[in-house]
Write a structure and sequence with these properties.
Helices cover 22% and strands 24% of the residues. By secondary structure, it is of the alpha+beta class. The chain folds into two domains: 83 residues, Alpha-Beta Plaits (2-Layer Sandwich); 207 residues, Metallo-beta-lactamase, Chain A. The longest helix has 15 residues.
């Protein structure tokens, strides 16, 4: 078993941010405001607008374990907790199950990387082998757990920003990497390229759909034919406060007009889970996906100068 204290740098108590709630867990000034902690444990972590803070201290073993997930996930070791809570804690806690699907069970990998600004990565565990969607930071405990689950057969890199430690994962599991040709300079070692706008069937129940906009080579991955799981990279994410699906002009690095056309390309999907690189994940009820995307497109049309939500 990997123990937390032997593996991770810890946040510094002298840099504890003032707005943390009094108690054992804290965020320090090294926080880069990536959002990983409040996505995985919103009961204890929240954004201030420029960083994260502990809004409520965990109460009881189960809540402490949840807060420790955030601590492990943090890409810059900005979350601290006292030794009596970390010394005997296992680091073998990721990946964690998000949802079961007939085409493969989906796990959240944790271990976010600073290189991808804390982007989320996901593992599909299926009959045809496992697929890693975007790259977590290299982690021996995570690699050990994934090995137990059968390793990695393919890595899909949704776009140039979230390639992180793909080289370590590809080497450890001797697997092929897929990236779009237009973002391939971010991972020149990738063995396979998606070219142009055509949808590519990576396997029976997994499609790659090019969605240029956020970057020129952005693409999404869609698992299943019904009740689909959409791995959206930074093309789309969920805003829980406003209950809207977000395509962001402010975070569009290549071409906003093309990004909106790429949003339209996804209207006919039947998405059950939206699992993004950044931002919140969301579970949709039947029929809600199309309505949510229409709303996103209407909002973009009404506010052409900005769709920051
Ligand atoms: S995960 Fe770490 S860096 Fe990211 S917002 Fe939380 S404390 Fe800050």
């Amino acid at each position: 078993m990997y123990l937390l204290d032997n593996l991770l740098a810890m946040a510094r108590i002298k840099d504890r941010l003032k707005n943390n709630s009094p108690g054992p867990f804290f965020v320090d000034s090294g926080c880069i405001d990536c959002g990983s902690c409040w996505h995985i444990d919103p009961e204890h972590f929240a954004p201030t607008g420029s960083s994260s803070y502990v809004h409520t201290q965990p109460d009881g073993q189960q809540e402490v374990e949840k807060a420790l997930l955030a601590l492990i996930d943090c890409p810059v070791a900005a979350i601290g907790a006292p030794k009596h809570l970390t010394a005997k804690s296992s680091a073998d806690v990721f990946p964690i199950l998000v949802t079961k699907h007939p085409a493969g069970d989906v796990y959240y990998c944790g271990w976010s990387s600073k290189r991808s600004f804390g982007a989320s990565s996901w593992l599909i565990h299926g009959d045809e082998g496992n697929v890693l969607i975007d790259s977590p930071r290299w982690s021996a405990p995570l690699a050990k757990q994934i090995k137990k689950m059968g390793g990695i057969n393919q890595i899909v890199l949704t776009h140039r920003d979230d390639v992180a430690d793909h080289a370590n994962w590809a080497k450890a599991f001797n697997c092929e990497r897929w990236i779009h040709q237009d973002d391939a300079d971010a991972a020149p070692e990738a063995e396979k390229l998606v070219i142009g706008l055509d949808v590519l069937s990576l396997r029976k129940n997994l499609k790659l759909i090019p969605t240029p906009g956020h970057t020129k080579g952005s693409m999404v991955a869609v698992l299943g034919d019904q009740q689909q799981i959409l791995f959206s990279g930074d093309h789309l994410w969920w805003n829980p406060k406003k209950s809207v699906t977000v395509a962001s002009k402010d975070y569009c690095w290549w071409n906003w007009t093309e990004q909106l056309k790429s949003v339209e390309r996804l209207l006919d999907l039947e998405v059950h889970w939206l699992l993004p690189g950044h931002g919140y994940a969301h579970e949709f009820m039947p029929g809600q996906w199309n309505e949510a995307l229409e709303q996103t497109l209407r909002h973009a049309a009404r506010a052409p100068s900005s769709v920051k939500i």
